[in-house]
Design a protein that fits this description.
The chain is an alpha+beta fold. Helices cover 24% and strands 29% of the residues. It has helices at 38-47, 99-108, 172-175, 200-205, 215-229, 250-259, 277-283, 312-330; strands at 7-13, 25-32, 52-55, 61-62, 66-74, 79-84, 88-94, 133-134, 137-138, 143-150, 155-160, 180-190, 237-241, 247-249, 265-267, 272-275, 290-291, 294-296, 303-306, 339-340. Bound molecules: uridine-diphosphate-2(N-acetylglucosaminyl) butyric acid. Uridine-diphosphate-2(N-acetylglucosaminyl) butyric acid binds next to strand 13 and helix 7.
């Protein structure tokens, strides 16, 4: 039986579908509720030469006032435990499932590992694209494979983890923009679980008598830390960290730390050091600064906010002045993290 076609809504307002709360109207919005709608839809878009993009939770995008062409709202929501052996359990999850709801569900079902990634806004399908990470864990570590529609081959493909090329806020999908539509993520949860507490904020909470927390306790702690530091997008528009933490060579780091002894950084792969971009921006005096309708969050300088009525141009202008100042003071180029559509 042919699948129901994807539901089409022309001229849809997306203000409530992006966490920055930017006013944006999409020319053609297709709601994808099942993967088998994609071959027909993508063929039609190709024939009409219509540009397309996928919108998940809208929590990592900067939308323009008008989005021409096709916007695919990802709403595939099936979820299934595929198998379990003595060591691992495999769980398949549709790309449209809410990320935080998935994390909570896995813990309730004793599938442990994602607790450090609690409260990250967005969808399951978007998670592998930028390889979401927080508190010492990256989602790629728990991914077994990904199913996606490959628009170049016009076919579904299954990419094993190694093919996804996960790295800090990066993946094969991000390196090949507008090619893949992630439809399903297969997670692999090892039954042998160990708490991951190396990140300073978490380590502080679980010292001494508390040094042996359960996954649920870590989940609760991560939720509390995030709620304290990061603005709730339902209250104040934002897309989480606006810049990536820059990765520099050990040699460059040695020079910088001599000049700026307070420089905050994390160890990275051999020969590299990851700097806290929030510290760099904070040092330049931007924290809490407001420029018209947009600004820098008062508790975390890495987060840009829309106080209401801001446009993508306002945000990008503020981002540019931050980039210029950080470059002038520290010689570091900050890369914007969310997708600019
Ligand atoms: N800092 C300041 N001033 C600030 C902000 C930060 O001095 O205004 C310094 C502090 O020393 C602080 C350090 O920077 O201890 C690190 O800050 P934080 O722990 O808030 O983490 P981050 O490096 O700014 C990264 C991720 C977050 C993730 C946290 C926790 C990136 C781009 N951001 O932020 O991810 O939640 O670590 O792991 O890697 C996101 O990607 O949207 C996001 C929120």
């Amino acid at each position: 039986m042919a699948p129901n076609p994807a539901k089409l809504t022309p001229n849809m307002g997306l203000k409530h579908r992006n966490s920055f709360g930017l006013d944006s109207t999409a020319e053609l919005v297709y709601e994808i509720s099942s993967a088998d709608q994609l071959p027909t839809l993508m063929k039609a878009l190709e024939e009409k030469k219509l540009h397309w993009r996928v919108l998940g939770g809208g929590s990592n995008v900067i939308l323009p006032e008008y989005l021409p062409g096709a916007t695919l709202l990802m709403n595939i929501r099936d979820q299934e435990i595929l198998k379990s052996d003595t060591q691992n359990t495999w769980l398949s999850v549709g790309a449209g499932v809410d990320w935080h709801e998935l994390v909570a569900w896995t813990l309730e079902h004793n599938l442990l590992g994602l607790e450090n990634l609690a409260l990250i806004p967005g969808t399951v399908g978007a998670a592998p694209i930028q390889n979401i990470g927080a508190y010492g864990v990256e989602v790629g570590e728990y991914i077994d494979s990904i199913e996606a529609f490959d628009s170049a081959a016009h076919a579904f493909v299954t990419l094993p983890k190694e093919a996804c090329r996960f790295a800090y806020r990066d993946s094969y999908f991000k390196q090949n923009p507008n090619r893949f539509i992630v439809t399903k993520v297969v997670f692999k949860f090892p039954k042998a679980w160990q708490a991951r507490l190396q990140y300073a904020d978490l380590a502080k909470q679980f010292m001494g008598a508390n040094s042996n927390p359960s996954a649920k306790q870590i989940f609760d702690a991560v939720c509390a830390i995030r709620s304290q530091k990061l603005p709730n997008p339902k209250v104040i528009g934002n897309a989480g960290s606006f810049f990536q933490n820059p990765i520099i060579s050990d040699a460059q780091y040695e020079l910088l730390i001599q000049q700026f002894p307070g420089l905050v950084s994390y160890p990275d792969i051999a020969g590299k050091r990851k700097l806290a971009a929030g510290w760099l921006i904070d040092q330049c005096g931007f924290k809490g600064k407001r420029v018209g309708s947009v600004g820098v969050y008062e508790k975390q300088a890495l987060v840009l906010v829309n106080h209401g009525g801001g446009t993508s141009t306002d945000i990008l202008n503020l981002a540019k002045s931050i980039q210029e100042e950080v470059n002038d003071q520290f010689g570091i180029e900050l890369q914007i993290e969310p997708n600019i559509l």
